[in-house]
Each structure stands twice: as structure tokens, then as C-alpha cells.
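Fill in residues.
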């Protein structure tokens, strides 16, 4: 039987660098995870492409997806819906491939309930002032939205104990290496446990 892939969840406050770190991980040729593209009702930012960065939907379309059970998880974040299409995740895991989700904490909590065996990683900023600096410097949000995202960031950071690992994003390359090392170690741990049980059964 085909071994299932690992579900990797990366969360962290808005502006910490999740997208930057994720893009850096996926730009490396030895990365074997598959990225799950989310659905959102947020308007595209300059340069964002439908079907690449997100699947952009209206609120009506998104709510229809909720009703039809097409989302593994979803949450409302600072005025917009965000969600993970369930079919893509299930099909990819069933093919034995690892799936990488980059989602906020309320959604991650729902995923934890459905996939307790997933690997949950929380990305931390070096400080709150650096977090503010990053989200302001990105220049994609209005002052009001930045304020709301930073308020939400405090609540999100309080939820970091729900995660298996906390990784600091002081430098993008280092954060990428830490995340890849965690995934590698998790694979080794699972293989070892399975191997040990198989050996045990052979002896019995
Ligand atoms: N290690 C880092 N050092 C300095 N700047 C960084 C670092 N990582 C990311 N940044 C910068 O911080 C800003 C926010 O990064 P990014 O958009 O990746 O954050 P995010 O966590 O995905 O945000 P959101 O949740 O709002 O989508 C970007 O301008 C990015 O270039
Ligand atoms: N619960 C979910 N959260 C998601 C998903 N896709 C992205 N996100 C998170 O939303 C915020 C805001 O994103 P932005 O692109 O508007 O800056 C951020 O924390 C993302 O990680 C999802 O499918 N589900």
C-alpha cells in the first residue's frame, strides 16, 4: 500500500515572512513538498496571480465552497475568508507526497483536529518591532489593516504552544534550513517507529 505523505503546516503572525520563507523553500531544487494553494476572498495584490498565489473568489463563491464541504479548514482573517481546498490535500497525501500549508492559526487548529499526525510549525519574528517594520515595509496594506493585523498577531503568538516547533525567522535562509531539517527529522522519526514495530512483529 502507498505510504501517505506528511501534512506540514506553517503558521505565524502576518508579516513574519511565511510567504517569503515558503517561496525560498520551494525555489530549492531538492524540495519535494507540494504547496497547497489557498482560496481567499481578499483582493489580489499587485503581481499576485489567480491560481498561483491564491484562488481568488467572491464571498458568495467561498460560502458555496463551505456549504459543499470543499474546504479542509477555513477562517476569517481581518475581514476576508481564507481556506484550504480539501481534495487537493487528500489526493496529494494519498500519492505519498508531502503537502505544505501556509495558513493562520484558527485554520491550523482545525487541521490539527482532522490531522493530529500533521507537523505544525510556528514562524516567529525576532521581535514585535521587527514584525511591524516588515509588514509596514511590505507596503501592501492600508494603515488600518496593518493595525488590525498587528493586533491579531499578539493573539496568534499566544497560540504558539499548540505547535510542534517554533522557528525564528531572523534570516530567510536560516529559517528555510531549520524548517527543512525539522521535516527531515520527522520523516526519520516516523520511519524508525514503523521499522521498530515491524521488527517487533517479526520476533513475536
Ligand atoms: N528574515 C527576514 N528578514 C527581513 N525581512 C524579511 C524576512 N522575511 C521576510 N521579510 C520581509 O517581510 C515582509 C513580510 O513578509 P511576507 O509577506 O513573506 O510575510 P507573511 O508572513 O507571509 O505575511 P502575511 O501573513 O501578511 O501574508 C516582506 O517585505 C519580506 O520581504
Ligand atoms: N486559515 C487559513 N489561513 C490562510 C490560508 N491561506 C493563507 N492564510 C493566511 O491568511 C493570512 C493573511 O494572508 P494574506 O495573503 O492576506 O497576507 C496569513 O496568515 C496567511 O498565512 C488558508 O487557506 N487558510
Amino acid at each position: 500500500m502507498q505510504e501517505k505523505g506528511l501534512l506540514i503546516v506553517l503558521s505565524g503572525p502576518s508579516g513574519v515572512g511565511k510567504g517569503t520563507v515558503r517561496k525560498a523553500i520551494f525555489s530549492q531544487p531538492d524540495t519535494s513538498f507540494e504547496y497547497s494553494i489557498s482560496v481567499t476572498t481578499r483582493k489580489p495584490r499587485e503581481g499576485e496571480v489567480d491560481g498561483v498565489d491564491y484562488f481568488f473568489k467572491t464571498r458568495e463563491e467561498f460560502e458555496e465552497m463551505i456549504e459543499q464541504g470543499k474546504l479542509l479548514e477555513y477562517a476569517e482573517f481581518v475581514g476576508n475568508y481564507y481556506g484550504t481546498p480539501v481534495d487537493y490535500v487528500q489526493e496529494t497525501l494519498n500519492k505519498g507526497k508531502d503537502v505544505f500549508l501556509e495558513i493562520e492559526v484558527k485554520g491550523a487548529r482545525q487541521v490539527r483536529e482532522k490531522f493530529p499526525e500533521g507537523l505544525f510549525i510556528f514562524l516567529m519574528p525576532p521581535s514585535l518591532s521587527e514584525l511591524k517594520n516588515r509588514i509596514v515595509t511590505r507596503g501592501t496594506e492600508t494603515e488600518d489593516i496593518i493595525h488590525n493585523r498587528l493586533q491579531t498577531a499578539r493573539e496568534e503568538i499566544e497560540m504558539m504552544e499548540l505547535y510542534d516547533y517554533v522557528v525564528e525567522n531572523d534570516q530567510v535562509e536560516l529559517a528555510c534550513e531549520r524548517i527543512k531539517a525539522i521535516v527531515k527529522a520527522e520523516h526519520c522519526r516516523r520511519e524508525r517507529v514503523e521499522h521498530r514495530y515491524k521488527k517487533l512483529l517479526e520476533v513475536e
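The first helix runs from residue 18 to 26.
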